[in-house]
Each structure stands twice: as C-alpha cells, then as structure tokens.
Amino acid sequence: MKLLCEYVSSESLRKHCLAVESSMRACAKKRGQDESLWAPAGCCMTLITSGTRGASAQGAAVLRERGYPEELVTAVLGHADRSGVARETQMAKCLYAVDELSGFVMACAYVRPTRLDGMTTESVEKNLRKKGFAAKIDRSEIERGIAELGAERTEHITLVIWALSGIAKELGSETIDSAAMIPYHRLFCSCTGGSLAMLQQYVWRVRLLAFVLAVIFGAVLGGIVWGFDRLYVGTPQPGLGLPILAFVVAGARSHTRR
User: Fold this and answer.
1) From CA 39, how far away is CA 48, in angstroms rounded?
2) Under CATH, to which class is 2-181 assigned?
3) Which end of the chain has the least Cβ crowding within 10 Å, N or C?
4) What is the 3-state secondary structure (H, E, C) of 66-93?
C-alpha cells in the first residue's frame, strides 16, 4: 500500500489496483497459493503500466530494490504485453486474467444503484457484448487472460465479482442507501437485477408509448366529436375535435419530456 501511495496519484488508478489486489487474493486462496505473495502484485503492477519497455524495466528494478521476490516481479512484467515477458507461472496468468476484468466489473458497478451488491455474472457478460460500454477496456485481453489461465469463464467472472464485493467500501462501490433511492428504482433493481441505465431506457420507451397512445386517443376523440357535429348539426365542423386533439398531444409531449 505504501508503494501504491508513493507512485500512484490518481484516485481511480489506486482503486483499480486495490480491486486487482483483492482479485489476486481470491485467486490465490482458490488455488491454495500464498495470498501474501500474490496480492501485492495488484499494487505493484502500477510501476509497469505506463511507458515503454524501458519504463517497465525501471519499474522492475524498483521492485527488486524493495525486496519483492523475482516471481512477483516477473508476473508484474508479464501482465503488460509490451514488456515482452512471457506469462509462465500461475501468478502471472492470474494477474493478466483479473487486471482488465476487475476494471470492467467496477465499470458495471458504477452504473448500478446497488453497485456490486447483487451483481450477477450474466449482467457482466451482457455488458461485455456491448461495444459502447466501457469501450476503453480491452475485451480481447479479458478473453485472452481467461483462455491462458484455463479457467471456466463463468466461474472466473463470478470469483472477481465476489472479490470486489468484499472491498466495496474501499472501492467506493458500496450499495447506495435504500432510503435515498426512488421507490420504483429500488423495486426494479430488486426484482430484475437491472441497472439504473436499463431502467431509464425502459422509462423512455414507456413514455414514448404513452405519447403514441395519447395521439391515437386524441385523434379518435376528435373524430367522434367531428362526427357528432356532422350528424346533429348537418354541417361538418371542426367543433371541439381539433382543440381536444391539440390539448391531448400537447399534454403527452409535456409528459414525455419530464
């Protein structure tokens, strides 16, 4: 953590490193490895994340000077493709497999009112298929990492979600206070597991449908009034038909803009 604070000033990058650290701890525990050895790789990788191979070499030198074991240094170098260092150990493969995925899970959490709480593997998979969602995150690296590790895809994503959920407060991804949530937001999320963005899409569609139905209703009502004028007055007059139609359409448009 001291190394993280010393070399990383970006709050978002610090949170990402904490997320990777937690994911590495979960991977080590699952594989019966030393958590105290694997976990620091998540924070140490910040020394290799920027610049060229020269910068990566300088970062590795700092890690060696601080007394980190060579296995960790090699794993950290291997997580950056540009370093040219092969990922041969389980630690190196796990670090590569959780790096981008941890960032993606955090991105998924930020658009959900309940954040990491209740997040499912299915929702992460769905967002992975959306090219416009968290577009800067390299999907191919996520796929390559899972393949190199030889992990079962669903199980691996679930593990990362579980790992990040354990430090949700540190990541700023704890569940929003339910008392502060709009009631139908809470109901929607609890019943469907959907996100706030998904709910907003549904609300927009419902309002559009309401507008269309209002126009149809206004046209029908206007036609009835027009027909009544023709039947009983004998001369087709706009009567109240057009004012009614205009009033209904104006009201519907006002509602859809809210």
Assistant:
1) 16
2) mainly alpha
3) C
4) CCCCHHHHHHHHHCCHHHCCCCCCHHHH
